[in-house]
Amino acid sequence: MAATIKDVARACGVHVSTVSRTFSAPHLVNPATRSRVLAVADDLGYRPNRAARALTTGRTFNLGLIVADISNPFFPPLIKAAQAQARGRDYHVFVADTDEDPRVEEELIRTLTKQVDGVLLCSPRLSNKMIERLAEDVPFVVINRRIKGMPAVLMNVAHGAGLALEHLADLGHRRIALVSGPIGSWTSNEMQGVAAETPGLDLVFFGPNQPTETGGLAVAPEVAACGATAVLAYNDLVALGLIEGLAAMEIGVPDRISVIGFDDILPGRLNRPKLTTVAMPAEAAGRMAVDLLLQSGGEGATVTLDTALIVRESTGKAHK
Amino acid sequence: MAATIKDVARACGVHVSTVSRTFSAPHLVNPATRSRVLAVADDLGYRPNRAARALTTGRTFNLGLIVADISNPFFPPLIKAAQAQARGRDYHVFVADTDEDPRVEEELIRTLTKQVDGVLLCSPRLSNKMIERLAEDVPFVVINRRIKGMPAVLMNVAHGAGLALEHLADLGHRRIALVSGPIGSWTSNEMQGVAAETPGLDLVFFGPNQPTETGGLAVAPEVAACGATAVLAYNDLVALGLIEGLAAMEIGVPDRISVIGFDDILPGRLNRPKLTTVAMPAEAAGRMAVDLLLQSGGEGATVTLDTALIVRESTGKAHK
DNA sequence: GCCATCGAGGCAACCGGTTGCACAACCTTG
DNA sequence: CAAGGTTGTGCAACCGGTTGCCTCGATGGC
Description:
Structural class of chain A: alpha/beta
Oligomer: homodimer
Distance between the termini of chain A: 75 Å
Number of strands of chain A: 12
Shape of chain A: elongated
Helix content of chain A: 40-55%
Strand order of the largest sheet of chain A: 2-1-3-4-5-11
Radius of gyration of chain A: 25 Å
Largest interface: A-B, 44 and 44 residues
Strand content of chain A: 15-25%
């Protein structure tokens, strides 16, 4: 099988500790010995076993990244940014998908606990209480959720939602449908909070919904029936599903109903009509989260990133 | 810190080996003792350290899954299917993205080697030789690549490409552009092979290209200039980029040029015109790959999955 | 009543590394 | 030339489990 530290030690007539030091503390070993060891190691194809090393040092140089749904185009850019950032710091990132299931999420975290030095939790579906409990075993950085005393990367959803509502108000919309996401989503709560506090609006809530096209498609009939002239959707996928659903009922967007999404994903840009949306800084969030995880002694720094409204073609003057 | 097996042993007055057996060979321990141990373990929040266990047993119950680009919508369904299948067999899957870079790919495989029981290699960019070398250290299943003696899950690209070309021929197309993918892609080679062997066609090759919208956009001018009335693109993303690029030059699809992609991803279904494409069975591939990896003693079984042509709106009669 | 059998659990070596400490050889310095 | 300092390496304990082997007491058959 693969060569171990012992094989190398034997093959060059030194003690294993010398081989070990050659790799983890090169300055402690005589240059001549070192190069001999390196030569033999290379010859045997030796590579330190990271799991074994982690056992004594307590450091794995791995990070975990847990997302609710990889197939949501919002996540891949965040994942890639996080991986790139981690790679620059000599870390590797293991990604896992929870399928939007809190039980799977917990299970994954427990599995990851001893195999990584920290976990990035993206848009978690677990309760705050559970996350706090799990945080005793492994450092976390949470993305898109505010939990007291825990490092977090937030996107300013409230601000974005405010801009979106303002934009709709400017276009003359008063009765607005709010199509929320899944239970346990912080983003969803933020949106609802802002909307509820905005004066002069006539809101209709729909939720919880699956955060996918399917979710959007499913509520389309109800939204159409409720008399709203505009919709604020949980995310772009829901918005796209909604538009598809409305189109099937021959309700034009934005002529009859205006639609705004969240995230600014690629399919939204390619869609006809091009989607008006609140852009979320996914790459920056991925990078920041890694930095926070690696630098922080675990104390709860919180970073809030800005969002911006991007007006395209799916919003227009209110239909009377 | 987290409780270890020793803490549990001490707290219930038994030897560590008894605690160990309680978890890994329950039938060897007295039911009364076992339940006492379980109670104490639960109380202390003990969970076996998987890395430590792996050190002696040689099994981690983890699988690695390496893809070239997570943000290509083709992969997420495959990833999810693989994860679900693995979960059913008590395995966990760690996903990593190589950014289409063979060096990163190699690095990732080496890192993963000792931390997983096997690796699923999706559309690798490494050379066959290198993959064979790495396979000495960890079992592989390769997806979308044929390597002698190595278990593989293939999709019948040749058959799909044949159907696509036939479809185009039926529509009267003779001069056809072949927009290939990145260097090192087996899929790309298969496509070219079939096309070259199909009689009666007038082929123009373009490549290598980035396997993304950007890649498609970039070749659009050349494709437009080459006089072809139809295009077979490396994948749907390239096809979409191409259509976008042609649209910018006011060249209508399918009126002036017909376009066929590969994969059948969601954005292709939402696009106007809806994309004609060769559907690849991504979920089935993910599941099969996991099965192959877990069951096979490593001997090179190869599974080939069927592809199908899905005719939508991006292909039409040849423009004279 | 004796011996073979069996179930339960302890002992200790081992997986592949890391690291504090000891020690020997060599080098300074006064 | 003795005292004190460096440098390079070996020794052995340790990380958190697993597992082959052994012991011990209880049971059962004859």
